Amino acid sequence: MSEFPFDDLNSLPRPTRRSILSALAGVAAFADEVLAMQQPGAGGIPTRPLGKTGARVSILGYGGWHAVANKTDEESIRLMHEAVDLGFTFFDNAWEYHDGRAEEVMGRALQQNGLREKVFLMTKVCARDYEGARRQIDESLRRLRTDHVDLLQFHAIQYEGDAKRILEGGLKAALEAKQAGKVRFIGFTGHRDPKAHLEMLDMPHPWDTVQMPLNVLDASYRSFEQTVLPVCRKRGIGVLAMKALGGGMEAPVIQAGVSAELGRRYAMSLPVATVICGILNREQLHFHASLARNFKPLSRREAAAIVRRARPEAADGQLEAYKDPKQGYGCSYHSRVLQAKA
Q1: Does residue 25 carry a pLDDT above 80?
Q2: Whole-angstrom Cα distance, residue 223 to residue 307?
Q3: What is the 3-state secondary structure of the chain?
Q4: Is the dihedral of CA 122, 241, 334, 278 positive or negative?
Q5: pLDDT of residue 10 exceeding 90
Q6: Which of 249, 256, 271, 337 is the most exposed place for a label (fewest CB within 10 A)?
Q7: Cβ-based neighbour number of residue 257 at 10 Å
Q8: Long-range CB pairs of 102-105, under 8 A, 24+ apart, other chains included
Q9: Is 283 exposed, middle or buried (0-12, 13-18, 19+ CB in 10 A)?
Q10: 97 is an active site residue
Q11: Residue 202 and residue 43 in contact, taking contact as beta carbons nearer than 8 Å
Q12: Using an 8 Å Cβ cutoff, are 96 and 333 in contact?
């Protein structure tokens, strides 16, 4: 089974300076809007509306993969408890993270002290077919020790035929779960190519959320910000930003001359509901909490300057390895399924 036919890394034209500045006009227009949207939240971390769902979430989210990475279960639980106390209300996860351990440990953490009622809990399923998605939904609920998740998303949309498979199979399982009260909202995620997201958005289904990479690197190469974000904003779909620092453990935006603080602020200045952050330790947790409490949107001039600073390193896409099909970033479960069928 091949990847998307548009996975040729040279298939999309390089954005021009004019197109970048045009896209950044949205940042400037959003500055006043985002401040009007924001409301004080727990611990002083502001919240924003999640599209048209009626839910509100913290402007920074707690990433599920990093939640248990390089830590014991007990350390992970203590850090998640502190995150809730600080005001993080959006908790991310996925069925496949750390072979299920991420959901299991997060479930233990949120079961204590009534914390489950204080957070907006999201997880993702990898299966595209009906039976696989139905099974993974139930497994995730069991691991998370809850009778429902607030948001269920189809994970890593990037493979040829994903939209068709989900429309004919997995979506039915998600809708049945929603009708049964196991799921409140339904969305999808992906980081490979904007065209994959646009294909999903063309489906005859009103998605509640879309998750995508949004950072100063993306602005210059195969940009989700310039192609997918405007569609979501026009339709009132809640946008979840990920990979604000360029993904991975090394924060590629820093290699492009942009600090972690400016990298996060850039993503937070876009019309998104939350920016999901990978937080590995207590120092990083308090850094992000302070950043959220004191957040001020970037001006158009500031955003343009940051993109120009990063562009020499960002223009060829090498720092965004997750956009390169040869690097193998994606859903390991779905990759195995496709390989078995090939």
Answers
A1: no
A2: 12
A3: CCECCCCCCCCCCCCCHHHHHHHHHHHHHHHHHHHHHCECCHHHCCEEECCCCCCEEECEEECHHHHCCCCCHHHHHHHHHHHHHHCCCEECCCCCHHHHHHHHHHHHHHHHHHHHHHCEEEEEECCCCHHHHHHHHHHHHHHHCCCCEEEEEECCCCECCHHHHHHHHHHHHHHHHHHCCCEEEEEEECCCCHHHHHHHHCCCCCCCEEEEECCCCHHHCCCHHHHCHHHHHHHCCEEEEECCCCCCCCCHHHHCCCCHHHHHHHHHCCCCCEEEECCCCHHHHHHHHHHHHCCCCCCHHHHHHHHHHHHHHHCCCCCCHHHCHHHCCCCHHHHHHHHHHC
A4: negative
A5: no
A6: 249
A7: 15
A8: 102/64, 102/65, 102/67, 102/68, 103/64, 103/140, 103/143, 103/144, 104/143, 104/144, 105/67, 105/68, 105/73, 105/76, 105/77
A9: exposed
A10: yes
A11: no
A12: yes
Query: Higher pLDDT residue, 172 or 41?
Result: 172
Question: Residue 224 corresponds to which amino acid?
Answer: F
pLDDT value for 251: 87
pLDDT over threshold 70, residue 173: yes
Mean pLDDT over each residue of the chain, to the nearest integer: 89
In the chain the domains, ranked by start, together with CATH numbers, are 17-341 (3.20.20.100)
Query: CA nearest 115: which of 124, 102, 123, 106?
Result: 106
What are the tens digits of pLDDT across the range 251-283? 899 999 999 999 999 999 998 999 999 999 999
Q: Say which amino acid occupies 226.
A: Q
Residue 304's nearest CA partner among 23, 16, 42, 13 is 23
**If you average pLDDT over residues 328-339, what whole number do you get?**
65
Tokens of 100: 């299920």
Q: What's the full length of the chain, in residues? A: 342
* Contact by Cβ (8 Å): 14, 316: no
C-alpha to C-alpha distance for 58 and 120, rounded to whole angstroms: 9
Tell me what pLDDT residue 235 has.
96
Give me the mean pLDDT over the 40-66 stretch: 96
